[in-house]
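Bit of a strange request maybe. I'm writing a small parser for structure token strings and I need a real example to test against, not something I typed by hand. Could someone generate the tokens for this chain?
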Amino acid sequence: MNTDIFKILSEKPAATIISAAMIDRRMDAGCFQPIYLKNESNLLNGSVPSARLGSLYSKGNYGSLPDSVDYATEGVALIRGTDLQSMAVNLSEAVRVPDYYYDQFKKAQITSGDILMLVKGASIDRPDSVAMFPETDDKAIANGSVFIIRAKGNKVNSKYLLAVMTSESFLLQKRRGSSNTGALYNDLDTIRSFIVPLPHAKIQDFIGQKVALAEECRIEASKHKNLLFEKISKYIDDPSSIETNKIGYWADESLTSERIDPMYYQPVYISNVDYLSNRKDSRFLSDNKMCSLVTDGDHGNPVYSEKGPAYLRVTDFQGFNIQHKNMPRIDGEYAQKIGARCYVKNGDVIVSIVGTIGLITVINDRSEGAIASRGVAKIVTSPSLNPYYLASYLASIRGQLQLKQLCVGTVQKGIYLDSLKRVQVPLLDKLVQDEIGNHLKKHISLIDISSSLSEKAKSDVEALIEGKLDTDAIMSGKLKAPTWEDIEKELEGI
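Reply from user aminoacidic:
Good idea to test on real output. This should exercise your parser:
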């Protein structure tokens, strides 16, 4: 379709008049919104050469849809749209299907370096709807909502292509190309027709290097995460059982003075408390040696605004990190009324205590100054307790068992602050705390750097399309892509 034959009189027209020459496969009005026409005009008529996505891949097909009754705890990973996060695939939370599915659904097989794109559902145009499958020995297949792309290396840099496919210009094409009745869906012809800007290989490499480096940061961050839990297991024994859904059990009468709900007395919870109580180094969070403050966030009805402090909610947690780009802002006057109690500072330990219980992070420079919402508790540690060690412990098996035991409520689970203060934490030697804490600190920093690199790669694509990227400097070598040595310098002192 030639998009250079239109004139926009209004960004939000009540009606759209189009030429017959503009009609290709569809004629529904929603397909001809001004934002879509301008986007594709920029791609087709700009200074950067372009190609259709279908010409850039050697493999391009949908996944398969196994029967959910076959989901298992072991076997082949089944990648769904919800497993695509920030250009990466979250394998740790992927559901599993029996091993024979891998050979049964050959077209759905995924290999390292494949680009996975969500093509079905209400969120097909969200920024996290495209990701690359990582280097791994883990076998995986994609489900029916995911489209698998294996880029032709002689035509396009696959990492650059990933940056393009997560950029705003590409996501607008996905939205425009979706059906507007029932579940949104991108069909094969639409996918093949998506426009991809295709600059010189040096420029592709410049942008693709940021994507590759972001993946290296995620891999290194994962190593630190594994190490911190290994260290905790070394100094704090893992429980022999973590089953928390026993149907029937006996509880000693002496234990039932505080609460009468049976879930509180699950054997694994009682065993966990006994273990911690018998450790000579265990301390309650209410102990002054542990914390100087344990408080929750804002209980009001926030007034949202485009400016003002960021508002930290439970939904903004992602692993040990915070999704800064998704955090809303609240009105400055409203923020002043809240007071200092709800502001978070560098080094504060943050715990989700309403809804999804037990999400943990530590505030760093990127999130300092935000205001905690009602579902978030803030813990300010004393000098004898490393905040990153505390966060690591609370995220460990024994820490999570305590938090789950303290939950109350039937419809929405929650933890009262007085209960949170009764959490027991082994006060390990300070050097050991620092050793464990440093792994978490590096993990959080590396994930933040990875997210920043991914965002920069996407911004480069948009700048390229708009003619704002300094391509001459890239071609001459004056402007260079970051390297791992740059990341190590950024991590110095952590």
